[in-house]
Design brief:
about 190 residues; four-stranded antiparallel β-sheet; about 50% strand
């Protein structure tokens, strides 16, 4: 049974998520001029009514030829956004705390992996944030507080990050499964 529907001129680009008890989603408004603005939208949990919309990021070139997708991870009063060519940390009010550009190749330039790669939600482990994106040949481990790169695992055949198991990441590549150390970014085993 559908509890509510909401008509809006905004395009929702993430799955809904709970942040400090509030139902949130990321959105954009379609525009062919200027940067794409990523908004944090707060929805009323019972009615779906939009309670607030806060600009979070301006993406100047990243989404011109990319799919409008954001993956979100939440910890405490912060949320982390992984989107085409960027990773950001924002507080519960939508204030951007840090942004990091990633190595990124738009599908328009290299379409070999367009349908083979999947979006993966960022993985949170202690004070580490691990991200992988379809247009990027790397898995990056970042310090959650500063966004500083701790290590980078180059994997040209990356399909997706599957999960965290203990102190390792399980990633899918074109050739199979791989375990990557969360501490060092080094390959532990291939299957």
């Amino acid at each position: 049974k559908i509890k509510w529907k909401q008509q809006t001129d905004q395009v929702f680009v993430s799955d809904p998520f709970l942040l400090r008890g509030h139902l949130q989603v990321l959105s954009t408004v379609q525009s062919t001029i200027g940067p794409t603005v990523l908004n944090l939208v707060t929805l009323h949990r019972e009615t779906g009514e939009i309670q607030s919309t806060t600009p979070v990021l301006k993406l100047f070139d990243a989404w011109q030829n990319a799919s409008l997708v954001c993956q979100v991870a939440v910890q405490d009063a912060r949320f982390f956004v992984s989107t085409a060519g960027a990773v950001a940390c924002c507080d519960a009010a939508g204030k951007t705390l840090w942004v990091r550009r990633r190595v990124w190749t738009p599908a328009k330039i290299d379409s070999r992996y367009r349908y083979a790669r999947s979006w993966s939600s960022p993985v949170i482990s202690g004070n580490r944030l691990v991200v992988g994106q379809p247009e990027s040949p790397t898995v990056d481990c970042l310090d959650m507080t500063t966004g500083r790169l701790l290590w980078q695992h180059v994997e040209p055949e990356l399909r997706r990050i599957i999960s965290q198991i203990d102190n390792s990441l399980l990633v899918e590549t074109r050739d199979g499964l791989k375990s990557v150390s969360l501490e060092t970014g080094q390959t532990e085993w291939l299957y």
